[in-house]
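Final report, closing paragraph on structural work. Over the funding period we assembled a curated collection of sequence-structure pairs, and we close with a single example.
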Amino acid sequence: IITSIDTNGYYHLNNVHSLKLRDDSFNIYALSSILNSKDFNKLYHIKSMEKGRAFAQIDIDFLLTMPLPDFSEQDAGILQEFYFENQKNKMKNKSISAYELEEVVNHKIFQDRD
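Its predicted structure, as stored:
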């Protein structure tokens, strides 16, 4: 799963899923950080059994059944900061793996499951 946020409303083709928030009460940047995390992707692949299949695709109906953690406004702020730092690093062709908040994102996904 690779997510990106389009604030300009560009047109996309049918091989891309998109969503539009109903209101601004949800932090879309925090959601993007969670969906882009390694552990969320691992969980998706385990549950969907799509990994390694020829022409594997993201099933939007299945994705909608995936658990998402509840997070506070402070958590959302951290995840949003991570999103923008990740975008800056991608523009510079730098690896994000050294960025410390990645572990915060990955931990948040699974801490509520214990």
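The helical segments are 28-36, 38-48, 60-63, 73-91, 101-111. The first helix runs from residue 28 to 36. We thank the funder for supporting this effort.
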